[in-house]
Amino acid sequence: MKGRDVLSICDLGREDIQGILSNAISGKSNGQSTLLEGKTLALVFEKPSLRTRVSFEMAMFGAGGRAIYLSPQEVGLGKRETVPDVARVLSRFVDVIAARTSHANLEMLSRYATIPVVNALSEVEHPCQALADILTVYEKKKKFKGLTMAYVGDGNNVAHSLMLAAVNVGMNFNIASPAGYQTSPAILETAKKIAAENGGHILCTEQPETAVKDADIVYTDVWTSMGQEDESEIRRKVFAKYQLNTKLTSLANPGALIMHPMPAHRGEEITDAAMESAFSVVFDQAENRMHAQRALLVRMLNGK
Fold it and tell me: Is 3 within a domain?
């Protein structure tokens, strides 16, 4: 996949994902390398970030490369400077772009850049988070086949990429979202086709108990994403019964993993008891962003 863009988790084939996971696990054990020596990543971010920014910077540093962070004020995609111009200028300076922006801007960056572009979060997908999530599942469960992942909450960008990644590696995927907050029909249709090819299935429901029952992994995300703050009060009411708490997680299989991409709004979508449970792997997920992204960048830039 050398030189290819990754705007969606679907831009990675099953072989790509398996290679990335294998290299991420190996890199985690072996520590720093020089696989990206002389390479530079431009981080073009229009939204705030803790895990995404630091994990990308440390991923490059850990493989001998470097990263340059470009804030909204410095770039002003489509405002201070056109997206095509930014894409073509950065292509002369750096080796890869990771952008946290609208999906339309990502597609335009991809169209005009002559270097690879990575989706570091858009309103449609969050593929790098999904890679870290399935890496975490594999580390803890040592397999994918036969496992069921249950997602409870908003059918957002994280849910999209997670669903596509889970069925790509052969897991079953259950999702419970309230009416009006479900996943994109087009992405769901794609995920169902992938699931059928890989021997898994997808269950969509409005009942969180149905989704979580007998699951091996229970996952949630914030009810209100960045840019939706004016909907907070409405969303708290709509999602009230979708909270990940001890009562809900008790319906899952014994030892079921509890996952959240963070930042977490404790007391809303997840309780302190669930977040701090012995089965919670939320901080492992956060660390694995760095390892998964390092393996992804190496594969994109070196084809290894």
Answer: no
Helix (H) or strand (E) holding 255: none
Q: Are 1 and 299 in contact (CB under 8 A)?
A: yes
Question: What does the CA dihedral 75, 80, 84, 89 come to, rounded to 10 degrees?
Answer: -50
What CATH code is carried by the domain that includes residue 87? 3.40.50.1370
How far is it, in rounded angstroms, from Cα 273 to Cα 267? 10
C-alpha to C-alpha distance for 286 and 282, rounded to whole angstroms = 6
Tokens of 171: 């897991």
Q: Which ranges of the chain does DSSP label H, i.e. alpha helix?
A: 14-30, 51-62, 72-75, 83-93, 103-112, 127-141, 157-168, 185-198, 208-212, 232-238, 246-249, 272-275, 282-302
Domain that holds residue 297: 9-126+289-302
Structural domains in the chain (count): 2
pLDDT in tens, 44-90: 999 889 999 999 999 999 999 999 999 888 887 878 899 999 999 99
Q: What is the DSSP string of 205-231?
A: ES-HHHHHTT-SEEEE--SS-TT-GGG
